[in-house]
């Protein structure tokens, strides 16, 4: 897969790219990223990328021309690339959008800055994405979010190939709680079931806690989540006031007072 990232701050992109999953994919040759300095696509001596807004108002607006020149230059190397403009006005980036973008061969990520981007740029991109309902100073951090999310969905990008299928949101659910050593930390223990060695029970506990977490924190996700009949039964039970303890085998407690943490 290739990413072309268009920005006026290449340094904001280059270092994070060289690190972690993105860096590893680049080293392995499964990902190729080109960071394009928007100022390289200006034609004036001062390399100006912004101008005052028509109609007045505070701040500056990014000019359309350098952006289109950058898109044209990129098209020469990646003719079918999907073009994404990062902006707080875009559709919200979700796991589903990430899966769709991960199927592309080439992606162009255009980072906006200042008060906005000349509206006419929108005629030359395929979509506009926001990473959430808040305003960043520019699209660079958003482009990194999209790049990392899409990269980790590529086959083999993570050490354990099965890992993305267990991530939060893969089935529209939040992930179950995780623990590692020590067994007791500051008086808080680990749920018994995770130390039971009973793999079927552990798997069921993980699914139950995943559904419970989602019920407690992001209830709206359950309306569209991909649930098995048993999981749907749990949701129906939670709606009637039941808790995970009601579903654990032989009434096995998920925590012991003073040892295990209350399940949240
Ligand atoms: N640029 C500024 N804010 C943004 C956001 N929330 N998402 C994407 N790009 C942005």
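^ structure tokens above, recovered residues below v
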């Amino acid at each position: 897969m290739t990413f072309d990232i268009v920005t006026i701050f290449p340094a904001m992109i280059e270092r994070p790219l060289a690190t972690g999953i993105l860096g590893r994919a680049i080293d392995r040759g499964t990902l190729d990223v080109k960071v394009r300095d928007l100022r390289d696509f200006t034609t004036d001596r001062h390399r100006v990328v912004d101008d005052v807004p028509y109609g007045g108002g505070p701040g500056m607006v990014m000019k359309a021309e350098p952006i289109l020149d950058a898109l044209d230059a990129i098209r020469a190397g990646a003719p079918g690339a999907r073009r994404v403009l990062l902006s707080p006005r875009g559709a919200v980036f979700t796991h589903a959008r990430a899966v769709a973008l991960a199927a592309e061969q080439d992606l162009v990520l255009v980072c906006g800055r200042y008060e906005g981007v000349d509206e006419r740029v929108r005629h030359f991109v395929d979509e506009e994405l926001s990473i959430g309902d808040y305003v960043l100073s520019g699209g660079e951090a958003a482009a990194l979010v999209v790049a990392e999310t899409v990269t980790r969905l590529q086959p083999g990008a993570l050490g354990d190939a099965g890992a993305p299928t267990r991530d939060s949101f893969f089935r529209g659910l939040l992930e179950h709680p995780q623990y590692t050593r020590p067994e007791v930390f500051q008086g808080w223990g680990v749920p018994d079931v995770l130390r039971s060695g009973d793999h079927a029970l552990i798997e069921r506990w993980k699914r139950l806690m995943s559904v419970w977490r989602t019920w407690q924190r992001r209830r709206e996700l359950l309306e569209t989540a991909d649930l098995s009949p048993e999981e749907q039964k749990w949701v129906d039970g939670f709606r009637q006031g039941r808790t995970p303890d009601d579903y654990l085998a032989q009434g096995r407690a998920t925590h012991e007072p003073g040892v295990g943490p209350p399940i949240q």
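The beta strands are 2-7, 32-37, 50-51, 61-62, 82-92, 106-111, 116-117, 127-130.
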